[in-house]
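It would be a great kindness if you could assist me with a short task in structural biology. The matter concerns a single protein, recorded as an amino acid sequence and a row of backbone structure tokens. Kindly check, if you would, that the fold set down in the tokens agrees with what the sequence suggests. Thank you for your consideration; the sequence and its tokens are set out here:
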Amino acid sequence: MRQQIGVVGAGTMGLGVTHCLAEAGFPVVVVDPVPEALGTAPVRLAEELRRIRLVRRDPAAAPVSTVTGRVRWTGRFEDLAGTGFVLECAPERIPLKEAVFAELDRCCPAGAVLASVTSAIPIDRLAACTRRPAGVVGLHFMNPAPMKETVELVRGPRTGPDTLRAAGDLLAALGKTGIVVADGPGFALNRVLMPAINEAAAVVGAGTADAATVDRLFQQCLGHQLGPLRTADLIGLDTVADTLGVLAECTGEPRFTPDERLLELIAAGHLGRKTGRGFHHWR
């Protein structure tokens, strides 16, 4: 029987990671202290499983009820006491994630691996909230996690070799490949991607080109699959803005300040694909 895995956070990324784990046969404990998120999570997970299966059409896949039956939902961090590997998927806010890591350090066994699915926060900053920095690692999943085969595997300056190996082994068990990078704000991927999205939003705001044109140029001229603004919609514009905010705070560079057009869409509730509208209309 596979080891029990913990997931913190029942948002979009938390459900995506839970989907990957449960589909691969792992028993999963999902912790989210927000009752509203926890209450709707089982239904959202089942819907996501059905939607992905329409795309994949895998006749060997276990029934949805079997996969969802591997997941236990709770609002208590103490329910992770028997878990040897935890993936933190809380919203991309530094104080929140620091508080989560302090709680995980308190509640999880001494040898447990604590992995953050952060998109930008330096891993060593989160490791500093624990008494086990050698057991902390970054696993930057892309969205939607069940459809992406590669994960940015972040080695903090104090991440131990056994921890890095355990993280790589877990990814392999999920059928994913980990590409190892060193620690730093935004790591490799988002240090490059987020400014590109921000500048694309500025181009739209300036009236130089609309969102469809910007993405078409990236697709047809550069071979990008989606383009920067469809990618932003897929990630979630709120997550993009939070990630840019982390980069701005951690680097002190004003170029990471979220663009006005991006903030306007968020203020209007247009967060991308998950709400049906962002830079593009999805429904």
In short: The domain at 190-275 is CATH 1.10.1040.10 (N-(1-d-carboxylethyl)-l-norvaline Dehydrogenase; domain 2). The beta strands are 5-8, 28-31, 71-74, 85-88, 113-116, 136-140, 150-155, 177-182. The chain has a mean pLDDT of 96.
